Amino acid sequence: MEKLIIQGGNRLEGRVRVSSAKNAVLPIIAGTLLASTPSKLLEIPNLEDVGTICQVIESLGVKITRNKADDEIIFDASTLTATEAPYELVRKMRASFLVMGPLLARKGEAKISMPGGCAIGARPIDLHLKAFEALGAKIEITEDYVYAHAPEGLKGTQIYLDFPSVGATENVIMAASMAEGKTVIENAAEEPEIVDLATFLNAMGANIRGAGTNVIRIEGVPQLHGAIHTVIPDRIEAGTYLIAAAMAGGDVFVENALPEHLKPVVAKLKEAGVTVEEEIDGIRVISTGKGIKAVDIKTLPYPGFPTDMQAQFMALTTIAEGTSTVTETVFENRFMHVAELRKMGAHIDIDNRQAIVEGMPRLHGAVVNATDLRAGAALVCAALTAEGSTEVGRLHHIDRGYEDFVGKLQRLGADIVRVDE
Ligand SMILES: CC(=O)N[C@H]1[C@@H](OP(=O)(O)OP(=O)(O)OC[C@H]2O[C@@H](n3ccc(=O)[nH]c3=O)[C@H](O)[C@@H]2O)O[C@H](CO)[C@@H](O)[C@@H]1O
Ligand SMILES: C=C(OP(=O)(O)O)C(=O)O
């Protein structure tokens, strides 16, 4: 079992380049299933989740060709044969469920294992299924899998999502791209990753308008062809480095970060008294790591404060002057990091969906575990500034979503190593 050992107290200095967004590349790779000719994706991040989605679509018959550096991949879905996604892979990563929309659109059926619940909440798929039914698919659910079929093909329709679910919006966009006629998605998710998916699908010949707003209009087309696409920078990875530098103290330029995707995070950092400068090619953060002011945050769908930054921001509030509140409205159980941060001395109480954080001058090192991806990132941010040494275990969570996390932090001057126990 591997773990990270972090000696707190080093200032962070220099430049760190943000990789392409995990949450954009996953639906886009699922989207390559729709094309009858090859697609090429550039600047693919080296992440566990990318490996998993590639295995899923390879198991469906897609041919994958990687360049030497493994950051450009050609996906040839002309050989798409199977319509059943294996349990072992769907269980590993919920985003595997995003192959259902493309499979339904292209093959008229899909059988996918039930993506189980996970640490951060129950995460049902009812909104996806309701929308597929509205598009004319028949759904059969057993304990183990969901089977959707549309032998007559999908038909465009008006869909109102009860919640602006990111995954449901993506799945419906992909299914509707090749449905007959026009689909309107109301109360759609507005995340930048949705816009990136729509940009890719439009380059493949789809007709999608309104992505990035809460009403998306899709005119179905009979066929899509492959396209070349570079995925957007990862706003959550960028935000994590902003917090790391704000907590540890330092002067860090987060290269390739897009300020317009990070408005709530930047606004809250400024409210906390951290100097943040937005530039064309990235965001600079300057901090002494001291005198951070308490701030309240509440997670919301985009353009609100991202739930995927909640854990890292909570870590920041543990060393702020005063009391902060952190309210999680997107997932019902996304406070798993609280118990771990408490091991490092943090004073946090939980009242239902709100955490009340009593800031203190300094955390201390401890032996902790990443309970989910962003919890792991939050613990690393906390460890960088804590007194003494911290060991972070269960690194498979962090590996899902941070490319070269240790190397990037080391190059900024952090005292962090990965060791095999
Ligand atoms: C791979 C990917 O892009 N993951 C992101 C995506 O996850 P994901 O697409 O799973 O998140 P959703 O936006 O769908 O989920 C938001 C909320 O809606 C609920 N819900 C969702 C679908 C459904 O059918 N029924 C239902 O009740 C979920 O349980 C959750 O409470 O958006 C989340 C919210 O920004 C992020 O935290 C994840 O990092
Ligand atoms: C929750 C996350 O991802 P996923 O939806 O893939 O679990 C995340 O990226 O923080």
| Low-pLDDT ranges | none
Shape: globular
User: Mean of the pLDDT scores?
Assistant: 96
Residues in β-strands, percent: 25-35%
Number of helices: 14
Q: What's the count of strands? A: 24
Strand order, sheet with most strands = 22-23-1-24
N→C terminal distance: 6 Å
- Give the radius of gyration: 21 Å
Query: How can the largest sheet be summarized?
Result: 4 strands, mixed
Which cofactor or ligand species appear? uridine-diphosphate-N-acetylglucosamine, phosphoenolpyruvate
Oligomer kind: single chain
Protein name: UDP-N-acetylglucosamine 1-carboxyvinyltransferase
Subcellular location: Cytoplasm
Binding site for phosphoenolpyruvate: 22-23
Binding site for UDP-N-acetyl-alpha-D-glucosamine: 94, 123-127, 308, 330
Summarize the structure.
Helices cover 31% and strands 25% of the residues. The protein has 421 residues and is of the alpha/beta class.
